[in-house]
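re: that chain from earlier
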Amino acid sequence: MSPRVLIIDDERNIRRTFAMVLTAEGFTVDVAESGEDGLERCQAERPDVAVIDVRLPGMDGIEVLRRLREHDTELPVIMISGHGTIATAVEATRHGAFDFIEKPLSKERLLVAIRNALDRRDLGREVRALRDKVKRRALMVGESMPVQAIREQVRRVGPTGARVLITGESGTGKELVARAVHDASDRRAKPFVKVNCAAIPEELIESELFGAVKGAYTGATQTRDGKFLQADGGTLFLDEIGDMSLKAQAKVLRALQEGEIERVGGNETHKVDVRVVAATNKDLAAEVAAGRFREDLYFRLNVVPVHMPPLRERPGDITLLAEHFLAAYLDENGLPQRRLSDSALLGAPAAAVAGQHPRAGQRRRAPGHPQQRRGHHPRRPGCLWRGRGDGNSGACRGALHGHGDGPARPGCGARRRRPGRGTPAVREEPHRCGPEAGRRQCLGRLAPARPGPHEPAQEDPAVRTGLRARG
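^ sequence. v structure.
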């Protein structure tokens, strides 16, 4: 679809000339001879660029520009005038004009201005889309009581300047909590800088955090800023801080106490205004007792403690997380959006999946962390999906349970066939979808009820469902 340009000018010859030039270049052109008519056409046609003369009968061009910006902040507007002055240009720019061109206009100057305006509009849309995408990925997904409590804690501590220490197992989403704290603070427009302390060698962690001057060490060919300076005015997220060396801990402590840092190899002191949010999967109190973590740094960081529980402690969030990750991967791969049925998620009744069943999360224990489920499970149904849109296909069930990357296998459902003459009893259940059982089913054979030498013994269904005691 060709870009649409609206020309608002009271001179008929200028309107005709602009229309001929732009139409020849592939644009769709609308014209208006007054400001009032131009505003009506903007609402009806939704142009991509507007070219407005400053001097118009009735409502002048500056007033038209101001009203357009009130209703559509994305529309780029180019102002033109045969009696342009610096004051007029400044006023137009102050009200949001993209460009100001004096008459008489050359063809090349007009086309360049319009194409630049279109590029600016497309760039703005792309930036907003990317920001929305980042925000969606940084959302804490879940409605369980622990997640709601963390959201409330973040809402309260976010606007303050207090430091936050986030604890929890690897993959539980500690970085999401740190991002939420940053977004809830007055520093949200400033940088959010992340550092994985466990991934940086001990001899490089200081230069990574505080920067280095040229020649400070081999390979330091120029002076560079560290993470503290990069995060000045914003938030610095120190992930896995429990793995930081004692030497680096001492320098971090000084930066927190004094708000000052020095580059490696330099003598100049730099003031920094940084809010530090730290995270660890270790018990820092035990690390302090063992002498592997500084006690004074621990108390500096642990102003507001936040604990992120693993997914196995909040099974009610499994459904929301699976649907969230699946929607994200489908969007990334340009596939139509689908939904997952409850049975496809965990192979259990809907009430058990939602965490309402008394034995929810016990019949089939989910992985402990949301990042584990994000890592591979939702990718498979997103890529292998075909046929129905309700998410009940075998490919989806097998993919979510990690039973291989192939298509749906026949008979992968909990049911019992009545044995016939010469046919052994057969039980096909979701937990019997191991490699050997899957191979037999794909070949169209029936799996014997008695387990083979390499298969685990089946558990009595009455024991598994809690109807009869074990042993």
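Confidence is low (pLDDT under 50) at residues 348-368, 391-450.
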